[in-house]
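Fold it.
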Amino acid sequence: IKYVILELNPATVEAERKKGEEIIYGDASRDTILNHVKAEKAGAIVVTIPNGEVTKAIITTARRLNPSIYIIARVRFISDITELYRLGADEVIVDERESAIEIFKRTILKSNAFTQELEKELDASVKQMRLNLYDRYLEKPIIESEKNAISGNYSHFRPMMHMIHTADKNMPKSKNSIKKIVVGKNSYICGKRLSEVSIRGKYGVSVVAVRRAENTDAELTPDGDTFLYEGDTAIVVGEIGKIDEIRRLFDEVGN
């Protein structure tokens, strides 16, 4: 495939040219630069810049210069997808979802729940999640009724939640385990950020997903700023003894 790379970092341009790459210094959002690389005759353009505003400018310019060009764009957050499609992108790859899927996959593979059979199920589940995400939710054009689903629906992760439940049944009880713990009313952890409680630091237990009480779907890869509220379910990975220790943080406390 014949290609040319546009790059704004002079050091990168110089280094890659020495390696024989077809690369030039230039801003891909500018007409003159895209005209210089004959974008009007190109079959496709791939936008990998992590800056959303610059990506939008490149898509707009490329689509105007070449209405038939196929545009693949990278975006950080799923909430930005609609705008990129509106501007003319044909495919959008979402950092937020890809990283969530990969991190969760690696968490399961590194746990003691791992078996060859689980690996096969995991690969199949990840494949299905990507199909659900890109073929269903991100299908172009996005209709109005799908916008809310894109921004807040995590149903494509349900197979992974089922896999956790299945794997836990056959896990050796003396080793790490994957458990679900519900946040009780007035419990110590209720209304707090994960960073405030420091479950991982104090107990060596990781919270790998949170299922909200008002939503049966899962929020993957929660971070230190994730709050836990009454009725939420935390999916945790760690030694059984340590998981039993942290249950008191989740237990309901009387008024």
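The chain has a mean pLDDT of 76.
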